[in-house]
């Protein structure tokens, strides 16, 4: 029952549902306009996928900041809140993944909406079958949602000082990884490894990453003060 109450809290603000459609619509019309103003046979590539990735990240961050204190004030358990918010993110991710597949199919049959625009059907990402494409988009959206949620909860628990330490630590580890890869001349092997795998195969790596974000977020939220 408490999970249902928490779900109602997340569903009250319907602005979150309209924002991505507005962003997609405006950027799509922008791409169509460019295609009409620039005649030719060259494909015009505009990433519609990245807009929703950013949106899901912001949803994880801002959605938590807007509803956590209110939910705690309504005596919702932290566990129920986390489950309900996660279900909201998963539901939105599935909705947008299905939407992208439908629009990618429409883009294919209209040959780039009549003016060679590539907005929804990307080379490589859409090379697999429909189910594989759906999984790729869904896992991508879910990963960014839980990443945003992790950052929001981490900042809430450890403040900006903790976030700064985390950021500097990650930057240090990335720098070490780049230096080691350069020292051992492994860049070519690394690029070949990526080239040998499909987008669907690579997307499987997002599953443990998303689970890591979710598990750590759940452990932190149980000790996070309002």
Question: What key attributes describe this structure?
Answer:
mainly alpha, two-stranded parallel ribbon, 9 helices
Overall description:
It is a single chain. This protein is an all-alpha fold and 226 residues long. The protein has one domain. Helix content is 80%, strand content 2%. It has nine helices and two strands. The chain has a two-stranded parallel ribbon with strand order 1-2. Helix 2 packs antiparallel against helix 3. The longest helix has 54 residues. It is globular. The two termini are 22 Å apart. The mean pLDDT is 87.
Task: Provide the fold topology.
Elements (H helix, E strand, L loop, with lengths): L1 H11 L2 H23 L6 E2 L3 H25 L4 H32 L2 H5 E2 L11 H54 L3 H9 L3 H5 L2 H16 L5
Helix pairs in contact: 1-4, 2-3, 3-4, 3-6, 4-6, 6-9
* Broad shape: globular
The rounded Rg comes to 20 Å
The H-and-E topology, N to C, reads as HHEHHHEHHHH
Number of helices: 9
Mean pLDDT, to the nearest integer, reads: 87
Poorly predicted segments: none
Structural category: mainly alpha
Main beta sheet strand tally, sense and closure = 2 strands, parallel
Approximate helicity band: over 70%
Distance between the termini: 22 Å
Instruction: Going across the biggest sheet, name each strand in turn.
Output: 1-2
Q: How much strand?
A: under 5%
Total domain units: 1
Number of distinct beta strands: 2
By oligomeric state, this entry counts as single chain
């Amino acid at each position: 029952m408490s999970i249902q109450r928490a779900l109602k809290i997340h569903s009250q603000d319907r602005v979150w549902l309209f924002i991505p459609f507005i962003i997609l619509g405006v950027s799509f019309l922008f791409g169509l306009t460019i295609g009409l103003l620039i005649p030719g046979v060259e494909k015009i590539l505009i990433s519609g996928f990245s807009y929703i990735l950013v949106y899901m990240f912001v949803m994880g961050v801002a959605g938590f900041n807007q509803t956590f204190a209110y939910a705690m004030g309504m005596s919702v358990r932290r566990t129920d809140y986390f489950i309900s918010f996660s279900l909201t993110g998963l539901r939105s991710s599935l909705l947008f993944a299905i939407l992208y597949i439908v629009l990618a199919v429409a883009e294919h049959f209209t040959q780039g909406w009549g003016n060679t625009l590539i907005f929804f059907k990307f080379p490589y990402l859409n090379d697999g079958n429909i189910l594989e494409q759906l999984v790729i988009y869904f896992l991508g959206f879910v990963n960014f949602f839980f990443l945003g949620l992790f950052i929001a909860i981490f900042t809430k628990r450890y403040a900006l000082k903790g976030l700064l330490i985390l950021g500097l630590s990650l930057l240090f580890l990335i720098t070490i990884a780049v230096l080691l890869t350069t020292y051992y001349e492994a860049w070519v092997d690394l690029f070949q490894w990526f080239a040998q795998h499909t987008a669907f195969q690579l997307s499987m790596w997002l599953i443990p990453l998303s689970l890591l974000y979710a598990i750590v977020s759940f452990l932190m939220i149980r000790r996070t003060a309002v």
